[in-house]
Every structure is written in structure tokens, then in C-alpha cells.
Amino acid sequence: MNVNYVFIKCFLGEITVAETDDGVCAILFDKNIKSLEAMFSKAELKEASIKNSKWAREFLDFIESPENKLNISLHLEGTEFQKQVWKALLKIPVGKTASYKDIAIKIRRPLAVRAVANACGANKIPVIIPCHRVISSNGDIGGYSGGLDIKKKLLQHEGIKF
Q1: Count of beta carbons in the 10 Å neighbourhood of residue 12
Q2: Does the pTM exceed 0.70?
Q3: 71, 152, 43, 120: which is closest to 5 by C-alpha?
Q4: HSE-up (13 A, CA, CB side) for residue 64
Q5: Does 96 reside within a domain?
Q6: What is the dihedral of CA 109, 154, 54, 47, to 10 degrees?
Q7: Contact 99/140 with Cβ under 8 angstroms?
Q8: CB 129 within 8 A of CB 84
Q9: Which of 102, 106, 136, 157 has the fewest CB atoms found within 10 Å of its own CB?
Q10: C-alpha angle 2-63-118 in degrees, rounded to nearest 5
Q11: Rounded distance between C-alpha atoms, residue 74 and residue 121, angstroms
């Protein structure tokens, strides 16, 4: 598998967008290529420019204006359960949140709250798959793979106060 990656700058800082021919496969909130190598240890990694990327420009437009419709293909790798969770996350509207419990109920696995949280943590394509919109049932912000500062910035950018 070939994975091309692009570094882009946005209000969150520098982000790495990685893609295969099938779609975006990872978004990292830094320029740490070692993390990308660990995620795709059997892939050939190659740096690309934003001009040569299929989806980096559209992602940049989306992160700056998340209310815009996004038409990006995704290259998902995960269990069927994780994919169910990620599909449910894609239905959370911009500017809204859901709890881990809400997602568990939505996928008809009401006792799988912790597994839902783990699936959010395993999401390699944050922002596009909006795990930042998932919070704890008690109203706490919960966790985030990119760190709580990034999660707060994303939520505030969408008009949600934390």
C-alpha cells in the first residue's frame, strides 16, 4: 500500500493528512512521521504537496468551515464495531455533541459505552470522523486523541462552549 502525506497549516497548527488511492487514511495533529510509520508499518510513505493531494485542499477548506459539505473518500481500517461507531459519529451535526452513551444507544449496543469510547480513541481520521463532538454523559469534555486543547478548539470553532 502507498500512503502519501501532506503537511497543512490551519487554526490548530500544523496537521498531517495521509491518503491512499482509496481515500484519507489518517489525520495527525503534528508532523510526526514516526507516528504515521507506526500506523502504516507495511506501507510505502511519500511526502506530497497540497497541489498533488486528492483531498488535502478540501480537508483544509472543511476544517476552516466545518459547515461546508465534505466530499472526501475515506480509507477506513478497523473492526466492524469501530466502523459502526464511526458511521454514527458522521451523523452528529456541526455545532452539536453527543455522549458516548448516546452513540452506544444509536448503534443498538447500549451497554457498550466504554467500547464506544475506545472506538473514538482508535479513530485515525479525527475531524472528518468527528469524535471531538463526543463528550461524557455528565457533560465533561471527555478524552481526545489529539489532546484536550485541540478538542476544545475544534468545539469552540463549531460554536460549542467548553
Answers
A1: 16
A2: yes
A3: 43
A4: 9
A5: yes
A6: -110
A7: no
A8: no
A9: 136
A10: 70
A11: 17
Residue 71 lies in a domain: no
By the 8 A CB rule, do 45 and 36 touch? yes
Please tell me which residue in 10, 25, 120, 131 is annotated as part of the active site.
131
- Distance, CA of 69 to CA of 15 (rounded, Å): 20
- Regarding whether 85 and 28 lie in a shared domain, the answer is no
- CATH at residue 153: 1.10.10.10
pLDDT tens, residue by residue, 52-106: 898 989 999 999 999 988 889 999 999 999 999 999 999 999 999 999 999 999 9
Domain range for 56 is: 2-64
108 and 133 assigned to the same domain:
yes
CA atoms within 13 A on the CB side of 65: 6
| pLDDT value of position 97 | 97
Residue 131 annotated among the catalytic residues of the structure: yes
The residue among 140, 145, 103 whose CA lies nearest residue 127 is: 145
The verdict on residue 26 lying in a domain is yes
- State how many domains the chain has: 2
Distance between CA atoms of 43 and 29, rounded to whole angstroms? 20
